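Following up on my earlier thread - several people asked me to post the actual chain instead of describing it. Fair enough. Here it is, all 426 residues.
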Amino acid sequence: MKRRRVLIAASLLASILVTACSSAAAGGGGSQGGSSQGGSSQAGGVTGAAIKVGFICSCSGAEASAIALTKDSAGAWAKSVNAAGGINGHPVQLFIEDDALNPATSLQDAKVLVQQDKVVAIVGEVSVLDSGWAAYVQSEGVPVVGGLSIEAPFLTNSDFFPSGASTGVLGVGMMQLMKKRAESRFGQLYCAEAPVCAELASLSRATAQIVGGIQVTAAKVSVTEPNYNAECLSLKSAGVDAINVASTAVTVQRVQANCAQLGYKPQSVAQSGTIAASWLTDPNMAGALIAMSNANYLDSSIPAVKEFLDAMDKYYPGDRTSPDFGYDVIYPWIGGKLFEAAAKAANLGPSSTPADVKKGLWSLKNETLGGLSSPLSFTEGATTFPNCYFVAEVQGGKMTSPYGTGPVCMNDAQTAALKKATGVTG
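Reply from S.P.:
Thanks for posting it. Predicted structure:
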């Protein structure tokens, strides 16, 4: 039971991080639910019957501004594919649904995509309510290809095909980054807004034990606190030399600033879901180390990342200057690239079925999507557990790649231990 709670807490953290990273409003530039991005008449001359795919996001509603721009990145993927001649010579038609953080709407969105739009896959989804429709799409045989891989269905549902690492793997990554910097006392500040967040302390202790040599001090923190003097002084007294604030990106910055005012400057270690563009210009965030589920989304030295950034500039100019251009924006793009790889492997066309998509996915072996992901392989009837993460560091106003652009992978013993600790099977 406790392992199940840890898994739920990790999934809840994912939801909190991706839906509350910013309080500023952001306009989504993608087309709304039921309409299509892409279609059969996109630039590049690709015409004819289309391969239909769907996308669901929690792009509107309370505290959802941080992922509003994912509609744009989904649209940029479809438009860039069609401008380059489509997939196997056929255009892609992308149907976008926004669940607005409403569980009933989210399930209905999935039903619209499957029953009305007849999509062969849901691609790059960024819905924090996917647990509510995961069983439905599986019963219909429609695969979910990439997306927010820190969500629970990617760990438990064999028809969800992850394109990156889970929260637990990123937790191990943070501990390994600490050891690399000769730090041994980890402070885990977890959200006070939901009681289950306290289970994140258990997850941190589990990942610390897997890495070894790390002691964990945990405490709750609220986004509404006027200051964090008590937390900073408590962590300082405990000798904590690196902290992770499992809350909004703004709260991370407030905690670091408050601690600095008290003369306490612990190393900031984070997961990709907490970061925001505002970190790059905040002197208190300089040197922050980040364990990322996929490649550094701002490192244009990686050709596959440059392709993503160039497409965003071409089709949605201005998005990259938004303070809400956080890591989540790249998830739909990576999911789209995974769908492309499966579609080419299975030679998909307009008459292909969801079962054909899955066959294409199962045929992929050690697929890295041009460096966007760690090696991905899928097995029929089994869940997939990518056990690698990527590293970034905030330095000089940029998101750098301090240890290279490739992934860092857990060994077999660490992977087995993490699965056991979080109750993941397969």
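DSSP finds 13 helices and 14 strands in the chain. That should answer part of your original question.
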